[in-house]
Amino acid sequence: MSSHTDRLRALREQLARERLDGFVVPLTDEHMSEYVGGYAQRLGWLTGFQGSAGTAVVLPQEAAIFTDGRYTLQVRQQVSDSDWEYVGVPATSVADWLSAHAPEGGRIGYDPWLHTRAWVDEARKALAERGADLVAVAANPIDAVWGDRPAPSDAVLVPHDDTLAGKSSAAKRADIADWLAERKADAVVLSALDSIAWAFNIRGDDVSHTPVALAYAMVHADGTADLFVAPEKITDAVRQHLGNAVRVQDRAAFAPALAALSGKRVAADPERAVAAIFDALDLGGAKILQVRDPVVLAKAVKNPAEIAGQKQAQAIDGAALVRFLKWFEETAPAGALTELSAADRLQAFREATGALRDLSFDTISATGPNGAIPHYKVTPESSLPIEPGQLYLVDSGGQYTNGTTDVTRVMPVGTPTHEMRDRFTRVLKGHIGLATAIFPEGTTGAQLDGFARRPLWEVGLDYGHGTGHGVGAYMAVHEGPQRIAQPFYPGGQALEVLRAGMFLSNEPGYYKAGEFGIRIENLVLVVPVAIPGGEQPMLAFETLTFAPIERTLIVPELLTPPERAWLDAYHAQVLAVVGPQLDPAERAWLEAKCAPIG
């Protein structure tokens, strides 16, 4: 089918054959992943939307696509308004919309492997008000009409060395067994891909830019485990790495294994395990303990080996980014670059390090109006020429075996306007405000979010995304549970307590629709800090990312003396970390960029 209109029509015809009056299409997979493999890109295939969060609902005469404030512009560019109604969340939930639009007495289908049980309960309750039913499908109807749907990846698993992980898989499973004993539970189901990768010290290549493998797992109270994965993905090296205490079974055996846990007390995470998992446990007669996956927090608090590895990766990545920024500044004014060619060049600089395993996400290479789309994804169709008078925003990162990077910088092409410099400086002030925050143990990311927004708020400005997300250790570039954002922001809550050892991003921004975008992003590490005379245990942030912040975009008069001192000290660190990796011409360029702001 050549058009998205044809695909929508084909899905409606399939729903009619299955006696369904509607169907809900989320952007996730059976592991509730944010980034998914090509086989699970059902929302993108159906609608054309290329963002990383969204849901669609298809009814016989109506269709709606639900996105949050990060994608307000993007969804309108990529999804036809002749076929789809745009609905903003969280102002209107999918359940709310269904309660108003579903046919009375209708049957609305959903795939129980793609939704949480909480969502199912909410949607079922909303539909009941219309006399309609929510119906679980045995097979996803999109798959029946998606003729060239990619197959799931068959890439083999790769052991992740214990020296990089900082702890053996056996020790991690022993900790999980202790956790189970405290709760008098027999087993825990792990379905989040990054939890499985962390717990078993394995990595994979099944999801673009995220080194995880498609698998399920159960860890038992005796420290043994069952790993459910396609047999062709297991090598002798992986078997030896996993050891005799891990039983490897076919991925297809997972659902029957759930049903066989009759009488067992089984822990499962209601936020990360899909409804089908709970349904199978219920059907088999297990006693379900609904609690957070024990790996989530353990994975988020990095150990010394992971922290050291991240710092090494950041140093390598910083040198690659510096080389790119120098090249860009020298090349862009000629007017021959495009968003795509610039992104390709940046990737080439990272690949030249010899250490890059993958990008950590699709590079956001955005000039002019595309920079005002926070989660813009450049394509051959959307790629714009980079022209004088514009701001170029590049948000990018790499996956290295010792760390995961994510950094955003903005470069002017030619002379920036006063407005551009003013907005950039206010974003920088917010970035510094968060970078220098000192806060007591027990503080949440929501409590710190305003530190980054205040300089914008003071002149009536703001940005429509979170200020910081968690980051993995050679893992997902977006890792929970920690966040820095307003308490209930699009994408999730930010009420997790920040703990020493957590990685987060610091990325305030400003976006002028149709003209330009600004974001300054570094990764930070939560560290303990001693305050002379203080009475409370305190925490602070250590900056991990090292690349110059463009000085021609800064209005020095807007910076306070402490802000100038921070910027000068940061640039001195950039020069110390990155400078030794550069040739003389590159180092001279960096020295000029890192000179005191004056």
TrEMBL record:
Q: Which residues form a coiled coil?
A: none
Q: Where is the Creatinase N-terminal domain?
A: 7-136
Identify the residues that the record assigns to the Peptidase M24 domain, covering every copy.
311-526
Q: Which GO CC annotations does the UniProt entry carry?
A: cytoplasm
Q: By its UniProt entry, which InterPro entries does this protein fall under? A: Creatin/AminoP/Spt16_N, Creatinase/aminopeptidase-like, Creatinase_N, Pept_M24, Pept_M24B, Peptidase_M24_C, X-Pro_aminopeptidase_P
Domain (Peptidase M24 C-terminal) spans 537-597
Q: Would I find Hydrolase among this entry's keywords?
A: yes
Q: Which UniProt keywords apply?
A: Aminopeptidase, Hydrolase, Metal-binding, Protease
In terms of domain of life, where is this protein from?
Bacteria
Q: Which CDD domains does its entry note?
A: APP (cd01085)
Query: A single Gene Ontology molecular function, please?
Result: metal ion binding
Q: List the Gene3D superfamilies hit by this protein, alphabetically.
A: Creatinase/methionine aminopeptidase superfamily, Creatinase/prolidase N-terminal domain
Q: Which family does it belong to?
A: Belongs to the peptidase M24B family.
Q: What protein name applies here? A: X-Pro aminopeptidase
